Amino acid sequence: MTPKPGTAPAAPGARGAAGPLLRVRGLHVWIEGSHILQGVDLSVPASGVTAVLGRNGVGKTTAVKAVLGLVPRTGEVVLEGRDITDRPTYEITRSVGYVPEDRGVFNGLTVAENLRLAQRAGSPSRYELVHELFPELRERASQPAGTLSGGQQQMLAIGRALLNENRLLVVDEPTKGLAPRVVAEVADAVVRAAADVPVLLVEQNLALVRRVADEAVVLDAGRVVHTGAAAELLEDAERTRELLGVSRAPAGAESAQGEDR
Ligand SMILES: Nc1ncnc2c1ncn2[C@@H]1O[C@H](COP(=O)(O)OP(=O)(O)OP(=O)(O)O)[C@@H](O)[C@H]1O
Fold it and tell me: pLDDT below 50 — which residues of the chain?
């Protein structure tokens, strides 16, 4: 895996053990009679960014929700060698930070209040780290979160997840609905987060993936159809087109939906 600038060689959670940080085997999810995940196997290494890619509706969000226990599933989810498959979500999220697709920011509360809400009882809150990574969150502490730009809200959502020490950070489509010019800001935020903790990133914006991801896992119709180095995949225009339905476009312009976001 190629370390990205600003990416720590090993995450705080890494214990130098061989083997992946997260291992998912044979994950199946049925929703309302539809077989959404059909035996997903994937691994997340103990540092860097692992991107989950795929066309719309192939099961990316469902896969990360299944890891977190947010949807009923069968299979096996192992974190740092510990089987967490049967653990409840509230327990899993004590060591796995989660930034959902809709960011989960409380618009009526200030930036400071949103951060305070994320504080975990009994563990130190890392305000210094969060403010060092995202100085804007300190500057805008008293601003209602609903008045932040999309990119700033994403920083707040990621900052909130970083307030507590986690073994893994799951970030679901952080650029969804954001203007292309904000994508670079979000990429910076993900790179900064990955310097602290390994990241599992669902993303459709391939320019961002190219910039931040070390590994790529591609889903199609509820199954993993490719795993490998992200850069290698994205350099291979034909394979990228075959798996994601897009051709290579100028950096910053492409997404797996084939349009600017
Ligand atoms: N609560 C639900 N009820 C019914 N169908 C659902 C539900 N959640 C997901 N699905 C279906 O499961 C499939 C996978 O959805 P999922 O959101 O995981 O895909 P995705 O790859 O993340 O898509 P996108 O890139 O559009 O966000 C889709 O066909 C979706 O319609």
Answer: 1-16, 249-253, 257-261
Q: Is residue 1 part of a domain?
A: no
Q: What is the pLDDT of residue 12?
A: 39
Q: Which domain holds residue 205?
A: 22-240
Which atom of ligand 1 is least distant from the CA of 62?
18
What is the secondary structure of 58-116 as a DSSP string? SSHHHHHHHHTTSS--EEEEEETTEE-TTS-HHHHTTTEEEE-TTTT--TTSBHHHHHH
User: For residue 204, which atom of ligand 1 is closest to its CA?
Assistant: 25
**Structural domain count, the chain:** 1
Provide ipTM, 2 decimals. Answer: 0.94
Residue 254 lies in a domain: no
Ligand 1: residues whose CB is within 6 Å?
A: 31-32, 36, 54, 56-62, 204
How far, in Å, from the CA of 223 to the mean position of ligand 1? 13
Is 74 contained in some domain? yes
Q: How far is the CA of 183 from the centre of ligand 1 (A)?
A: 23
| Predicted pLDDT of residue 158 | 93
Tokens 């492409």, residue located = 254
